[in-house]
Amino acid sequence: MDQLLAIDMDFCTDNSDCRVHDMSAQKQSGLAWVKANTDLINDWVNQDGLALLRGLNIVSTHQFSTILETIFGEPLKQYVYRSSPRTALKNNIYTTTEYHADQVILQHNENAYSNSWPKRMGFFCVVPATTGGNTPLADSRAVYNHIPMRIREKFERLGVMYVRNYGDIDLPWQEVFQTQSKSDVEQYCHANDIQFEWVDGDKLQTRQCRPAVVTHPSSGEKVWFNQAHLFHCSSMDSAVVQSMRSSIGEANLPRNAYFGDGTDIDPQDIAAINDVYRGLTFSYQWQRNDILLLDNMLYTHGREAYSGPRKVLVGMA
């Protein structure tokens, strides 16, 4: 089997330690090869935090979901308490975030704003973009270590409060919670330590406090694990934010982030965090049929702007 595996540094856009496993030479179907090598694949992810499987023959979305369930050893997770628009396909496979092609999606660990998140994620490139469109990655351990100590210690001490207002600007609560029932939303919030308030009858605001730093359950290492930089209003275009503040008030912004005690986060601290991410991010050039496996606690992901058609799917466990 060794002759079928390769780690090719040329696939990376910088000098980071890449983990690309090229199976182009093997003649089995992608699913057959994965079933025969599940332990090996999990060893790669456990050791490196990620693995890019290249050259597998994958013919359908159903086969991709079966491949992920074989590797993860459990059914895929339904995506509830959403933060971005997606299309649900069969077997808990989803499109990646459907923002406009000219928009960059900042680095994030999936569902880090929640008390429930996927441990493993798998991405499947069906159609690579004509230009751009790659999925940048960053090591959450390195992010933790590179954030200035003054900022890191305050976040670690206070945590993050995520505030969301659903509806007119952000996703409607019916899409986020995947239900039409207000009582279902309330039950979910009670079960997941989310404070909620119904405003004007049918509008929903939620607040949830979460740690900014967590400890990886296997390695015992501290990782930067939050989405303060995504939720904070300074990440939006400043003119748009000022306009919304004037028209609806800061408390009604579609989303915002504060320290866990409710105090403001300095926009300069958010800028410093984004600078750390930019300095540590690397990416692979997507190729058709690539499968990228991530430990969601160890690695963040994002999306480059792109041109042309692009289709990348995701499953979580």
From TrEMBL:
<dbReference type="InterPro" id="IPR042098">
    <property type="entry name" value="TauD-like_sf"/>
</dbReference>
<dbReference type="InterPro" id="IPR050411">
    <property type="entry name" value="AlphaKG_dependent_hydroxylases"/>
</dbReference>
<dbReference type="InterPro" id="IPR003819">
    <property type="entry name" value="TauD/TfdA-like"/>
</dbReference>
<protein>
    <submittedName>
        <fullName>TauD/TfdA family dioxygenase</fullName>
        <ecNumber>1.14.11.-</ecNumber>
    </submittedName>
</protein>
<keyword id="KW-0223">Dioxygenase</keyword>
<dbReference type="Pfam" id="PF02668">
    <property type="entry name" value="TauD"/>
</dbReference>
<keyword id="KW-0045">Antibiotic biosynthesis</keyword>
<feature type="domain" description="TauD/TfdA-like">
    <location>
        <begin position="35"/>
        <end position="315"/>
    </location>
</feature>
<keyword id="KW-0560">Oxidoreductase</keyword>
<dbReference type="GO" id="GO:0051213">
    <property type="term" value="F:dioxygenase activity"/>
</dbReference>
